[in-house]
Amino acid sequence: MQTYEQLKNQIEKIIDPGFNKTLKEVQGIKRLVIDQTGIVECDFF
User: Fold this and answer.
1) Beta strand residue intervals within 1-45, DSSP E
2) Domain that holds residue 8
3) Which among 1, 3, 4, 23 would be 20 to 30 A from 38, CA to CA?
4) What digits encode the pLDDT tens for the residues 5-25?
5) Is residue 2 predicted with pLDDT exceeding 90?
6) Residue 1 pLDDT exceeds 80
7) Rounded to whole angstroms, how far apart are CA atoms 36 and 4?
8) How far apart are CA 21 and CA 8, in angstroms?
């Protein structure tokens, strides 16, 4: 199982097609949670 930081780093590399920039560049990740069972919840802008 990936750590929070590893997962966040991978998601931040995804390109937002509307801006043609990474999610990190557009600050597109609003919430990222990994629960104790490994289930991930993520909200974007």
Assistant:
1) 15-16, 21-22, 29-34, 40-44
2) 4-44
3) 23
4) 999 999 999 999 999 999 999
5) no
6) no
7) 12
8) 16
